[in-house]
Amino acid sequence: MEIFSWLNDQLLKMEWLSDLVKLLVQRVFQLPIEERLGGSIHFFIYDTIKIFILMTVLIFFISYIQSYFPPERTKKLLGGIKGIKGNILGALLGTITPFCSCSSIPIFIGFTSAGLPLGVTFSFLISSPMVDLASFLLLTSFFGVKIAAIYVIVGLILAVIGGTLIDKLNLGNQVESFVTSGHSNIDGQIEELTYKDRINYSVEQVKSIYKKVWYAILIGVGIGALIHNWIPQSVIETVIGENNPFAVLIATLVGIPIYADIFGTLPIAEALFGKGVEIGTILSFMMAVTALSLPSLIMLSKVVKPKLLATFIAICALGIIIIGYTFNSLDFLFS
């Protein structure tokens, strides 16, 4: 256990990096980190470097795994499985795919065009930006294994239930005709990649995702530093503290307009956690950002009709709110 604790502290939490940044702030900037300005600079530099290191390693590793699951193979895995088993498999496959909702939607279109069950594709669409190995390891580095595991489990449950409900509502006619009538090349022969091909693919994925999210990470860390060091505890408690019965609703609504993935969301969640915000409220905020970001909903509106889009939003939002209030009621387990 001591070895595991040391590995967690040094590899995931990167306490060595925190100590180095502390020395930098105190000796180079001549600022005590106990004060607002010094603490903000420490938070920003430490979290930014930490997230970019973890992001590089995790994206490369997960992209390498993902190279074994091209759309053709994924269709073969999902094509013959229907019902709850298909939803579970769709949700699980979402854990090894892109890191933001806007990246997941083109794959969702491909799966739908290929004739996969609508419920299965929506289970994939919900889980893909919200839950993956990266989110688990990142959350572990910030909050510990217990909270990380809870986030992944409830995210998968939401994806399975959401996809199942959409399947039961028989909304197949609510997909735009150009998607369902298009000829997909997803049935093509699976190309076997060499070790070098997989390495190159993983490197390109790292570069591609860096280009998409670097600014969101900097904004997220900046907001986190602001919350952590400049916004008074009393303000946080009034707006989304445990005494506000609408805290989960507020966190969910605030999260939806924000476009970020798990990497950009974590610094804000970390700062809120440090201010004593309940875990359910934080989970709701993170899930709303990753699953229901406004840009991704705009993209999705181009391929599904209003009724299906509204159903998707309602199911996800209701599920996120229920999860938030449920875990707030069990907050004593995580304190």
Labels describing this entry:
single chain, 335 residues, mainly alpha, 17 helices, globular, Permease, membrane, transmembrane
Describe the 3D structure.
The structure is a single chain. This protein is mostly helical. It has one domain (2-175, 199-333). Helices cover 75% and strands 0% of the residues. It has 17 helices and no strands. The protein has helices at residues 2-12, 15-28, 36-66, 71-79, 83-93, 101-113, 118-130, 133-143, 145-168, 177-180, 195-229, 233-240, 247-255, 262-274, 279-291, 294-301, 306-329. Helix 3 (36-66) packs antiparallel against helix 8. The longest helix is centred in the middle third of the chain and has 35 residues, at 195-229. The radius of gyration is 21 Å and the shape is globular. The relative contact order is 0.12. The model has no long low-confidence stretch (mean pLDDT 81). Belongs to the UPF0718 family. It is found in: Cell membrane. It is a multi-pass membrane protein.
Short précis:
This protein has 17 helices and no strands. It is mainly alpha-helical.
Proportion in β-strands: under 5%
| Span of the ends, CA to CA | 21 Å
- Low-pLDDT residue intervals, each spanning 5 or more residues: none
Largest sheet: none
Subcellular location: Cell membrane
Membrane topology: Multi-pass membrane protein
Keywords: Cell membrane, Membrane, Transmembrane, Transmembrane helix
Main location: membrane
